[in-house]
Amino acid sequence: MAREHEAAILPQQGGLLSSGKRSTPQPGPNEVLIEVKAVALNPCDYYQRDYGIPPVRVYPAVLGSDTAGVVANLGSNLTMVPGPGSRVIAFASSFCQNGSPDHGAFQKYTLAQSEAVIPLPDSLSFEQGAVFPLAVLTALTAWTTIGIPLQTRYAPADKQAVLIWGASSSVGTFAVQSAKTLGFTIYATASPQHHDLVKKLGAHAVFDYKAGDVVSQIVSAVKKDGVRLHTAHCVVDGALQPTLDILKETKGDAPAKVVHSAFLPEGHPTLDNTQITFNFPSMDEVARIQHMKEVFHGWLNPGLQSGAVVPSPNIQIEGGGLAGVHAALDKLKGGVSGTKIVVPV
């Protein structure tokens, strides 16, 4: 194996990601070294590049978290994970490793903790595999953030409903897929061109978020269906006020819970007897590792093996390899709809 590899390196905050060489690391006892074949891009990647948010603790930095590739080497403690040569999906983030640039996704060889590495089914390409890690982790963390264990399985008789606002986004599509696993009746919003996709993923009803009467449309549908809507996930900006307007009409006297994945500003709208929580995983290392195991090994891996979980949303492939990541991030920053940008490496 090469002693050096190519990486997209960020020299300082607001700098250009440019191709350079890094020493190829050895995996720690519980780590996997992955030869990266494809990376997917997320808004937090350009936030980190341009603004240093979430915090970038070490410069020069290697950003990114979403990879699919081939196992190159295993840590000394590992026997149960796929061995060298196996195709895998991995969450490889320097943010969770105190900024260690050996762990960022945007390089040819990256380290990932074993809890966040699972087999990539033969039926999926590396480009399809790369779309899962951060979006799945974010979507499933939303449920545990508001006290819904991932083992929850509501029956139709429970009449438990959920509102997912922003369901055609990358996180939104996995919010829908996971809500289906949990047994919720799903009411979702998306642009009309994405309604079929969101329904196919498991939504019971999908509404155009730009419609002037979207709030009353959703309230009417919930009341007609006779379900209990006390839970919501605001995936995107601008969703909180209409979500609270809906819950006000559907929750009755019951307490309600809203999880907010976009930045939650001070002075945000509120509603009586309604808990509004920013979506963020535990920063306690033991709790975080256990949560990752539940997300990747407990939910994503069996879901992929059975075909119950599928790649989403639509994939837009950008060329140029690691040298093209900077320009691809600019495209993402410029705005995409119902699309995940993936760069083959």
Description:
With 345 residues, the protein is α/β, with parallel strands linked by helices. The protein has helices at 43-51, 126-129, 133-145, 170-182, 195-201, 214-225, 240-250, 285-306, 325-334, and strands spanning 4-9, 18-23, 31-40, 66-74, 87-91, 109-113, 117-119, 160-165, 185-190, 205-208, 228-234, 256-260, 274-278, 314-317, 339-344. The protein folds into 2 domains: 4-131 and 313-344, Quinone Oxidoreductase, Chain A, domain 1, CATH 3.90.180; 137-278, 3-Layer(aba) Sandwich (Rossmann fold), CATH 3.40.50.720. Strands 3, 4, 5, 6, 7, 14 and 15 form a 7-stranded mixed beta sheet that branches. Helix 3 (133-145) packs across helix 4 (170-182), helix 3 (133-145) crosses helix 8 and helix 6 packs parallel to helix 7 (240-250). The radius of gyration is 20 Å and the shape is globular. The model has no long low-confidence stretch (mean pLDDT 96).
